[in-house]
Amino acid sequence: MNTIFEHALWVSPLFWTLILLVAAIILFVHNKIRMDVVALLVMLSFYLSGILSIQEILVGFSDPNIILIALLFIVGESLVRTGIAYRVSDGILKVAGNSEAKVLILLMLSVAGLGAFMSSTGVVAVFIPVVMMICRQMNISPKRLMMPLSVAGLISGMMTLIATAPNLVVNAELVKDTNLRLEFFDFTPIGLLILVLGMGYMLIARRWLSDNNDESNQDTMQSSMNELINEYGLKDRTKRLVVKSTSPFVGKTLDQLHLRSSYQLNVLAIERWKHFRPSYIMPLGTSEIKAKDILM
Fold first, then answer.
1. What does the angle CA 160 – CA 164 – CA 169 come to, to the nearest 5 degrees?
2. Taking a C-beta distance cutoff of 8 angstroms, is the pair 134, 145 a contact?
3. Per-residue pLDDT at 199
């Protein structure tokens, strides 16, 4: 009896499905192989094991929700390439000035607003270097703004129908079973309520987050930036351009140069040396370029 049971377990599709699921999770955690490659390997394994047929494996690609999610990534990338996402971050400092509370509120509103129409992961990735530069300029601990950034990214999934994939999946099942559908902004009222509560909580909770402004904190910020660059594979995409004294850029503002539309370049920070030490300037549209500036 035990032998029959063990044999049935060994050849059970459920057994192999669990094995493949665990293997995929391990590969995702180690992050040595790209996630899309892992997903394709899992699909191939399901076919080779005989659990699913070719038609069953590929049927998901004909699902309208899958196509819509793929198109949302195109929308998100267009927001970045056209500079809209960065213009939002530029406006945060213009409006908030040196008020940390205003920066926190505007940051969460911006992230939740953009995350309602594009991938929240992409929004957070766009705002990470922006937040690091704001923290450096305001001389505050990154924890005081990085946590609100993450919370706003999560809340953005509650803002619209397309804000996150589970919303689309639920809507598809609702249409299939009842012929009813969720409207685009049906999620928005509860999302706005959660966002307001989240901002109120973060305004209070930030008081318990570290705010050490010593030299070790600066080293931590630099270390965190390096880790993020390595994590998102930005090392080969980030360049440092030195502005020569004869450059036509000298004396002009970033808005006048149109670097994003003309050259597809996004300036994350301006490094300017003073008294043999570098200082980092948040790249606002009105920031004037000077000779020997280093554009990151």
1. 100
2. yes
3. 94
